[in-house]
Amino acid sequence: MKKILFYIFSSVLILAGCERDDICAESTPITPLLVIEFFDADNPSEEKIPTDLFIAEEGAPIGLTFNAATISIPLRTDTNQTRFDFIINAGSEDGDDPENIDRLIFNYLPQEEFVSKACGFRVIYQAIQDDFNPLDDGPWINNVNILNATIEDDTEAHIRIFH
User: Fold this and answer.
1) Is residue 150 part of a domain?
2) 19 in a domain, yes or no?
3) How far apart are CA 132 and CA 47, in angstroms?
4) How many domains does the chain have?
5) What is the pLDDT of residues 40-87, one digit of tens each?
6) Domain that includes residue 136, residue range
7) Is residue 14 part of a domain?
8) What residues does 121 pair with on adjacent strands?
9) Does 4 reside within a domain?
10) Torsion on CA atoms 154, 155, 156, 160, rounded to nearest 10
């Protein structure tokens, strides 16, 4: 009988030591991604998917390939700037549609925000600004429009690119 009471008492102590916030719920906000929408420069109300879009941080050999009018990409959390090369017709060996690289530099103020003991911190981005630099013959990006200069979630677009 003493053993049973000992196990019950031990179990109660162990369970009482757990706190509700020891597990990070899936619904907990995390560091948001930068959401970019692509639109037709000739018809600004119409979405336009860039052809064979490849995005990599400046000088990086690896990156992300997209085939959508809305994309989400991560910004650096350890600095106040992220430099991306936006390449259309990536890997194209067709002489009619050669690769075209434009560089977008995003400047911002990263701010750490405490979420909970289990989840730790997340970063939100304040005062985002862009610097657009075409790198070859001519830019494929016509205009960059910042819709929301504060990035607190990734449920809606922050930037529109017209091409």
Assistant:
1) yes
2) no
3) 20
4) 1
5) 999 999 999 999 999 999 988 899 999 999 999 999 999 999 999 999
6) 24-162
7) no
8) 114
9) no
10) 40
